From TrEMBL:
Domain EAL: from-to ranges: 23-273
Top-level taxon of the source organism: Bacteria
Residues of the full protein shown: 563 to 835 of 835
Protein name in UniProt: Diguanylate cyclase/phosphodiesterase with PAS/PAC sensor(S)
Lineage: Bacteria, Pseudomonadati, Campylobacterota, Epsilonproteobacteria, Campylobacterales
Length: 273
């Protein structure tokens, strides 16, 4: 009884210590990764459904850890947010994406570049100034840049966020709401937030066109978003049946493995040829 319980507790706290140790270790490696430029942006095509043309690319970060190899953002972005390291990482992401975007424009590819900006970054970084200086520095143009934000990112400190979004958009930069439909507040803020693109979350797309509830939700998001003047992009599209359904119901764009997974820049360019 008691003995087991105590054993359980001490086992649990050992586990916590283990976890804390891992976190500290990861944070240290992450700090070093920033200094040693161990990050790389991969690009996933965004496709205009009707013309089948690649019209954009989402920049998705990868970490080339010298010991552990390629690490996915899901395994370090949350910790980067907690520790504030996201500021330095996010700055690098915007710079590198704009630099690459400019290279592609110069090669004659007419692409927009989408960059993920996290809640923490939006709160603590002077993002409008960062974007301004980056566009100047790289020569990339505002009308080719898309900033992706999640619903929860803009829900925090709403007044400030709205002002910031207006300032960003006034420069001609477009705003996309990422993972749309997974937040808890999808309607009231749509009226107040200056948005250009809704990205329907992959979870709603997965079972289309087989699951009636998901199909109803996707149709409703497309209809509502279009009526409000937004462009609609479906995320995580893997099958032609999904694309047919999306096209039939008025969704203009998709992004997903059906076209391609995120690629290194050299591989991405092969897709454009
Ligand atoms: P996200 O912004 O929602 O990006 C889409 C994720 O879905 C990407 O995962 C992409 O590889 C994956 N995906 C796209 N199409 C498909 C598909 O057809 N099937 C499946 N199974 N997956 C698909 P990734 O690259 O691992 O990124 C995960 C998340 O990490 C991103 O989700 C985003 O929230 C975050 N992230 C990535 N790069 C950055 C960054 O530079 N800054 C910040 N703040 N967050 C980032
Ligand atoms: Ca995104
Ligand atoms: Ca997403
Ligand atoms: Ca996501």
């Amino acid at each position: 009884g008691k003995k087991d319980k105590r054993g359980g507790i001490s086992y649990y706290s050992d586990e916590l210590t283990e976890l804390a140790k891992k976190h500290i270790e990861l944070a240290t490696r992450l700090r070093r990764a920033i200094e040693h430029s161990e990050f790389e942006l991969y690009y996933q095509p965004q496709v205009h459904i009707k013309s089948k043309r690649i019209v954009g690319a989402e920049a998705l970060i990868r970490w080339n850890d010298p010991i552990h190899g390629l690490i996915s953002p899901n395994d370090f972005i949350p910790l980067a947010e907690e520790t504030g390291l996201i500021g330095a990482i996010g700055e690098w992401v915007i710079r590198d994406a704009c630099r690459q975007g400019k290279l592609w424009i110069d090669k004659g590819y007419n692409l927009s570049i989408s960059v993920n900006v996290s809640a923490n970054q939006l709160r603590h970084q002077n993002i409008t100034r960062l974007i301004d200086s980056t566009l100047k520095e790289t020569g990339f143009t505002a009308d080719k840049l898309v900033i992706e934000l999640t619903e929860s990112a803009v829900m925090q400190r709403e007044e400030e966020a709205v002002a910031m979004l207006h300032a960003i958009r006034a420069k001609g930069i477009r705003l996309a709401i990422d993972d749309f439909g997974t937040g808890y507040s999808s309607y009231s803020y749509l009226k107040r937030f200056p948005i250009d693109i809704l990205k329907i979350d992959k979870s709603f797309i997965d079972e289309v066109p087989f699951e009636n509830d998901d199909m109803a939700i996707v149709k409703a998001i497309i209809a509502m978003g279009s009526a409000l003047g937004y462009k609609i992009l479906a995320e995580g599209t893997e099958h032609i049946e999904q694309i047919d359904f999306l096209e039939e119901h008025g969704c203009q764009y998709y992004q997903g493995y059906y076209k391609s997974k995120p690629l290194k820049t050299s591989e991405f360019e092969k897709l454009l040829l």
